[in-house]
Amino acid sequence: MGLSQQLWQTNLDLAQASLNHAFVQGIYDGTLPKANFAYYVGQDAFFLEAFARAYSIAAAKAPDWEGFRAFHDLGGGVLEELQLHGRYAQTWGVDLAQVQPGAATRRYTDFLLATAWSQEVDLTAVAMSPCMRLYAYIGQSLAQRGIPSHQYGDWVATYSGDAFAALAQQLETFVDRYSREGEPVQTAYRYALACEHDFFQAAWEARSSGTKGDGEPRYLE
Asked: Which domain holds residue 160?
């Protein structure tokens, strides 16, 4: 078993908690209020922009050409994911340019970017891989019951697909190649998974707080 799988198995409790979270289950069964999903779309778009930047930093620090090219390719996958969020934003009237990160979002992005800038690529890959593996795990787990036909069905289809699973596996390949087991690796991996759970919790707790002067909805964490 490679390091990436060891880390995943060790922290499966947090992954299961995210899968079972009311926010995720509400996406699958279609009962999640649109206001909560709209908040999530904006926050996740902000997060993904930071994620793409972390990939670029990792590419610059990669010790070999294969790693450099792979991290750039993975960054391209994030850009495709952002296109999905762009479609969601149009559907629910979310202006992504006006999104302000909530506390849970900021904690996560600050952690990822600080790791990318201050650490070598081995720890950056470890800090980023839980997000990819968790979403693949959630998507595939939900899809075992079928892809829903309601408004959130595309979300399940995207994260349960083979293309997304391949991106998660690609990143884990570089965790196995570059990283070595130790306390910093264990800590970074578990912290990232905890941030994912907190991210879902913040979206679940989000409530509409009325409208701005321009009539656009405003959501607070």
From this structure: 3-208
Give phi and psi for 13, each to the nearest 5. Answer: -60, -40
- The answer to whether 131 is a known catalytic residue is yes
Identify the active-site residue in 81, 131, 172, 195.
131
In a domain, 221, yes or no: no
The answer to whether residue 181 is catalytic is: no
77 has pLDDT over 90: no
Whole-structure pTM value: 0.89
Residue with tokens 């264990």: 186
CA 16 – CA 24 distance, rounded (Å): 11
In a domain, 101, yes or no: yes
**Domain annotation covers residue 220:** no
Identify the residue whose tokens are 């910093």. 184
122-164 per-position pLDDT tens digit: 999 999 999 999 999 999 999 999 999 999 999 999 999 999 9
Residue from 196, 205, 216, 221 carrying the catalytic annotation: 196
Question: Could you report the per-residue pLDDT of 25-47, keeping only the tens digit for each?
Answer: 999 999 999 999 989 999 999 99
The pair of structure tokens assigned to 68 is 């450099």
Closest CA to 131 of 87, 171, 76: 171
Strand partners, 200: none
Region class of 21: left (phi > 0), else alpha (psi between -120 and 50), else beta:
beta
How far apart CA 199 and CA 129 sit, in angstroms, is 16
Closest CA to 173 of 116, 122, 214, 103: 122
